[in-house]
Amino acid sequence: MNITGTIKTSLRALRAHLGRSLLTILGIVIGIVAIVLVISLGEGAQDLILNQVESIGANSIIVRPGREPSGPSDVAESILADSLKMRDVEALNKPVNVPGVISIEPAMLVPGSVSYKDNLYRATVFGWTPNALGEIFNVYPEEGSPFTEDDVRQQAKVIVIGSKVKQELFGDSDALGEFISVRGQKLQVVGILPASGQVSLFNVDEVAIMPYTTAQKSLLGVNYFHELFIRTQSDADVDQVSEDIKATLRETHGITDPAKDDFFVVAQKDIVERVSTITQVLTIFLVAIASISLVVGGIGIMNIMLVSVTERTQEIGLRKALGATNKNILTKFLIESLILTALGGIGGTTIAIVLSALVSTIAQTQFNLDWPFHLPIFGIVLGVGVATAIGLIFGIYPARKAAQKDPIEALRFE
């Protein structure tokens, strides 16, 4: 019998036990769905995170106080460190020290909630410079205006709030000119930001931004900064600028041994590389876990094929009596195994693509996330390839067992 005839008879045999065939395929389908879906969503999540990070700009550098965190416990130490002060900003602003710098934006993080009358909301409260949000993220007040440099110099008690903060505190009422409370201090609302959702690493709708001097002196009572956000010229060598920043800060801090730095410098391109590496490793790990279900599906195929061999013993004997060789029988049962895995691979891939597109659409429409849909060709090839290999590997033993049956004994089998 030629290969076409063998395929046709294999399909008839599988249709004769349709329920059992579908249950066998199910194990492969689940495995393929897991692999393709993990890779697709992993690539989408990686693009989402990288786009958020890159939105700050490749030529951006962040300087934070304290030693660079090597674990979760070090993060709090960094936040509480007091090593970055105004003298550092003044030194970094000198072109002779750090050429290529466009601006330095000191930033403060103010813990706590904002309130208006009886309404309370836990916003993300920053002390920042007047134009930081606009120049870095291209977000400007929809109503009112940003605070000014004079407000920074005078430590003015003014604040710009996000759209969700406004809605939570004021509802449909006008918020401009009203005073809200932050850590017991009254601040006047001078601007309201448009609904922008997630921008970089924070949600613009949930922020409240005041002059950094107000946050520093009036609300927190400190003389240091939590962060310095530095923007460089587009043609600047970011690595060289980072080294110049380190050299300048060591000089202002009287540090001669780099191992004793009480600050750390992070360039945006370094963050992008780290995030990319982390997401890739995580995707590989999840794919490895998902592949276990394919192995389980392969074992299921082997078991079903063994049952099929036992049930069709007389058929095998009859075929051999009519001239079928061991190779013919082996080929027939291998093809049945491959058909099952191929159908599982096609079905699993289709379901995974639909689910991935659905997740991407929901993320974009319902959560306002720029989560792109990816058709992971590599994942599809990997999943279907592994499924085919499993069909061969787990189908060989039942097929050999069928091929090695003695025709006379097979015909006598009850």
Q: Your description of this structure?
A:
The chain has about 425 residues and is of the alpha+beta class. It has helices spanning about 5-15, 20-55, 70-80, 85-90, 130-135, 150-155, 165-170, 210-220, 240-255, 270-310, 315-320, 325-365, 375-405, 405-410; strands at about 60-65, 100-110, 115, 120, 125-130, 145, 160, 180, 185-190, 200, 200-205, 205-210, 225-230, 265. It has two domains: about 5-55 and about 275-410, no CATH class; about 105-230, no CATH class. Helix content is about 55%, strand content about 15%. The strands form two sheets. Strands 1, 2, 3, 4, 5, 6, 7, 8, 9, 12, 13 and 14 form a twelve-stranded mixed beta sheet that branches. A two-stranded antiparallel sheet has the order 10-11. The chain is elongated and about 105 Å long. It starts with a helix and ends with a helix.
Task: Show the helix and strand layout.
Layout: H1 3-16, H2 18-54, E1 60-65, H3 72-80, H4 86-92, E2 101-110, E3 114-116, E4 119-121, E5 124-128, H5 132-137, E6 143-144, H6 149-153, E7 158-161, H7 163-170, E8 179-182, E9 185-192, E10 198-199, E11 202-203, E12 207-211, H8 212-219, E13 227-232, H9 238-253, E14 263-267, H10 268-311, H11 313-321, H12 326-366, H13 377-403, H14 407-412
Parallel strand pairs: 5-12, 7-9
Antiparallel strand pairs: 1-13, 1-14, 2-5, 2-13, 3-4, 3-8, 6-9, 7-12, 8-9, 10-11
